Every structure is written in structure tokens, then in C-alpha cells.
Amino acid sequence: MLPTDRRYSKEHEWIRPESGEGVIGLTRFAVDELGDIVYVELPAVGSTVSQFASFGVVESVKAVSDLFAPASGEVVAVNEALRTSPELMNTDPHDAGWLCRIRLTAPAELDALLDAAAYGELTGVE
After folding, report:
1. Which pLDDT value is given to residue 86?
2. pTM as predicted
3. CA-CA distance, 71 to 98, in Å (whole number)?
4. Rounded CA gap, 10 and 91, in Å?
5. Which domains are present in the chain?
6. Which phi and psi (to 5°) does residue 113 adopt?
């Protein structure tokens, strides 16, 4: 079941808003499509990301794919555990497998994203 406390992009990233910040991750749907994830390139803390622009890379046994920011902001934290254990994205993409946390610079951008029901319709996932 899709978590309802976040917004989703059509590129299959999620963001969970938290007090002016947002935690970003890759959806279960995307992880399942990619297969076993073996490497994740994360943005540097202090860098900025722009909505729908690439901010990192995920590599699986099947493909290398860009990660796209669901909202704009300054990176305030990255999930360091993914550097040595990228498989966390396979086992728990909606919690332990989060990618980064940003300080939102344009919170209204979240309105352009899908809620869980709309993302479920897009992907066929409930």
C-alpha cells in the first residue's frame, strides 16, 4: 500500500513534507522495475536541487537511472547508509531507503505532485 503522507512525481520519486523540509525517496514501483539496486549517487549536503531536475543516480543490475527532485530546495542531509548498503532501497524504499532531506525553497511546488491515489492510478499500484 502506498504511504498517504507524501506526494509523488510521475518520475517515481516521493517526498514527505516535514516542517518546511522534505524527505525524498524512490517509490517501491520504481525499485521493483529497476531490480536489485547496487549503487546510489547522492547529492552533496549544501547543494541545491530543482524540481524535476536530476540530482543523483541509481544503478541496478538492470539499468542506470537518474533521480529527479520532486521539489526544489537545499540538501540538508543524505542517507549515508545507502553508500555502503544500497540494498536498503530494495528492502524498504519508503522508509530506511530514503535518499535525502531538503529544505524546501518553493513549498507550493508540492501542489504539482500526485497524491497517493493519483500515483496509484498512474502505476496500477494501490
Report:
1. 96
2. 0.96
3. 15
4. 22
5. 17-108 (2.40.50.100)
6. -95, 165
Convert 94-107 to b/e letters by CB count within 10 Å (16 or more is b).
beebbbbbbebeee
Site of grid cell 549544501: 46
If DSSP states are collapsed to H, E and C, what string results for the chain? Answer: CCCCCCEECCCCEEEEEECCEEEEEECHHHHHHHCCEEEEECCCCCCEECCCCEEEEEEECCCEEEEECCCCEEEEEECCHHHHCCCHHHHCCCCCCCCEEEEECCHHHHHHCECHHHHHHHHCCC
**In sequence order, what are the residues at sequence separation of 6 or more whose Cβ sits closer than 8 angstroms to the Cβ of residue 98?**
23, 24, 25, 79
Q: Return the residue matching grid coordinates 541545491.
A: 48
Residue 109: which pLDDT band, with cuts at 50, 70 and 90? very high
- Is pLDDT at 126 greater than 90 in this prediction? no
